[in-house]
Amino acid sequence: MLKTLQLKKYYNSTTTEVHALENVNLSVNQGEFVAIVGTSGSGKSTLLHMLGGLDRPTDGKVFVDDKDIFSLKDEELTIFRRRKIGFIFQAFNLVPVLNVFENIVLPIQLDGNQVDEKYVNEIISLLGLTEKISSMPNQLSGGQQQRVAIARALATKPSIVLADEPTGNLDSKTSQDVLGLLKVTGQKFNQTIVMITHNEGIAQMADRIIRIEDGRIVKGGDLNV
Ligand code: ADP
């Protein structure tokens, strides 16, 4: 279970204070797939960053499985993030000198862990990348590169997947296909998926749509709403 309590994030500059998030209360069940929608500047990325412990809130809490993640020191938070959360961003951020397989297992190796080959190969197969494992990123289409980025995010067996416009660079057919695969893998491994999207069609694929305006949730924040 992923939960926020009265979450606030204010950004200060010399002249103004931006209230990027204002008292956000949100609960997401384990295994649930939610889409966050809202106009540019409404606070979507800020919320995703807080959920993933990438940045600390001004006030309020984020709980993952009843643990208050911001009670952790920075180092512990980094370890928590690495073990528990898979990030997928719009930019694929693949390492150009590593092949597909090496890119996918890189986070596992960076964490000093053994690669669970059976599991990783299952992810690769589910995402339709088996024939591409020796290819270099520049030999892949955009859709294939995004599938590699998804495989890399899933390879560490995260219980939560946070995705920021994961299909922003893809055409709509490829976006639907890639999202369909993310949904299937999420269901198979009981992962919680929180995804930001601008695309209404993509949002409709989620179990629940959360709408955010001016840093506040205006729809879909609580379960069963
Ligand atoms: P969205 O993802 O919905 O486009 P963001 O979460 O990126 O929205 O931004 C919400 C608000 O916070 C915007 O007004 C944005 O300008 C501001 N903001 C985001 N990040 C920062 C930052 N690092 N410093 C100052 N202001 C920021």
Number of helices: 7
Give the overall pLDDT as a whole number: 92
Q: Which small-molecule ligands are present, each listed once? A: adenosine-5'-diphosphate
Write the H/E string, N to C: EEEHEEHEHHHEHEHEE
In the CATH hierarchy, the third-tier topology is known as Rossmann fold
User: What oligomeric arrangement do these chains adopt?
Assistant: single chain
Q: Between the first and last Cα atoms, what is the distance in angstroms?
A: 17 Å
Strand arrangement within the widest β-sheet reads 6-7-8-3-9-10
What is the strand content? Answer: 25-35%
CATH-level-4 superfamily name: P-loop containing nucleotide triphosphate hydrolases
Structural class: alpha/beta
Q: What's the CATH architecture name?
A: 3-Layer(aba) Sandwich
Rg value: 17 Å
Count of folded domains: 1
What features would you highlight for this structure?
225 residues; alpha/beta; Rossmann fold; six-stranded mixed beta sheet; four-stranded antiparallel beta sheet; 7 helices; 27% strand; globular; binds adenosine-5'-diphosphate
Concise structural overview:
It contains seven helices and ten strands. With 225 residues, it is an alpha/beta fold.
Describe this structure in words.
The chain has 225 residues and is an alpha/beta fold. The protein has one domain: P-loop containing nucleotide triphosphate hydrolases (Rossmann fold, 3-Layer(aba) Sandwich), CATH 3.40.50.300. Helices cover 33% and strands 27% of the residues. The chain is built from seven helices and ten strands. A six-stranded mixed β-sheet has the order 6-7-8-3-9-10. A four-stranded antiparallel β-sheet has the order 2-1-4-5, covered by helices on one side. β9 and β10 (216-219) form a beta hairpin. α4 runs antiparallel to α5 and α5 packs parallel to α6. The longest helix is centred in the last third of the chain and has 17 residues, at 172-188. The chain starts with a strand and ends in a 6-residue tail after the last strand. Bound molecules: adenosine-5'-diphosphate. Residues 11, 18, 20, 38, 40-46 line the site of adenosine-5'-diphosphate. Adenosine-5'-diphosphate (ADP) binds at residues 11, 18, 20, 38, 40-46.
